[in-house]
Amino acid sequence: MALQIGGLLAPGGRELPETWDLGPRLPKCAGVSTASPSLVLRFLGAGGAFSRRYGTTCSMLEFAAGPRWLIDCGRQAPDQLLEAGFSWHDIAGQIVTHVHGDHVYGLEDFAFMRFYEGREGVEPVMRGGPKPKLLAHSAVRDEMWETLAPSLRYLREGEDLRAGTLAHYFDVAEAEQSEAPRDNPWAHAERFEFEDLAIVCRESEHVPGKPSCSLEFELEPGRSDGRLAWWSGDCTVDAARLSALEPRTTVFFHDCTFVDYPGQVHGAFSLIEKLPRPVLDKLVIMHHEDDLETHRARVEALGVRIALPGQRWDLHRGVRLED
Ligand SMILES: [Zn+2]
Ligand SMILES: [Zn+2]
What we know:
By secondary structure, the protein is of the alpha/beta class. The chain has a single domain (38-321), classed as 4-Layer Sandwich (Metallo-beta-lactamase, Chain A). The chain is built from nine helices and 19 strands. It has helices at 77-83, 101-104, 107-116, 138-152, 166-169, 239-245, 269-272, 277-280, 296-302, and strands at 2-4, 19-21, 32-33, 39-45, 58-63, 68-71, 93-95, 133-135, 171-172, 177-179, 189-194, 197-203, 213-218, 228-231, 249-255, 283-286, 305-306, 312-314, 319-321. The model is unreliable at 1-30 (pLDDT under 50). One zinc ion binds next to loops.
């Protein structure tokens, strides 16, 4: 099977091929666990910016106590959620790493559905129902509004026909702590505690000059040296940071590309291959291009695991759960 994607340009100016050989469908990985976990990450979409086979990125955090959060919400997220058996009314909150269409273009659907429609005992936000929570670095949030405002700002307050803000649709989380700016004018990192969740959004190198964050999920909130689960968002390989975090980290989910090009903005597999063994042992690649299968042997030879849609991962133990 081949898919026409001609004419698109990837971030960084790379031209995509006219046709991609999609190969066989979604094989399963080995090495799964049957124990019941307290915090699970479920992949709804595990593909890259232009993936059709693996779907744009959207994952669900599932707490044993009940709440479900989404990590990013790409353009295919509304359909991915439905296919997984959920509705927007099942989602307590949304985390956003950065503003590219494959990470945020499902958000308008989320905001409008919850604002105007109720379901199964959940009232619409416009009638006082619960707002979904929104957690993102403040610099990312500013860019979110640039893309959402043309739709979401049309709420009337008195004579003002454009009074809508993010806060009309979402319960927006403010950072508890932040780190001083380093390479950019915004805070290097912001830490949030929001009910079930403690998370650090830390700037990472994606597109130069653009706010974009990796995520550090604190698995033992309140302990400064507690264990983490790490999520790249989209970023280049930062070997020093990954090595520094490794002793505390149960699992690293890293975006990955097998295409080397000038101005790389993703996790080049050629650099992932050079990471220290302890990092590789905890690494799971994601955000795949549709030719992933042509590289599978190289990934497996390195002992690195592969995220695929539908998989569920126990973040405390860094292992995949049985289907
Ligand atoms: Zn992306
Ligand atoms: Zn991106």
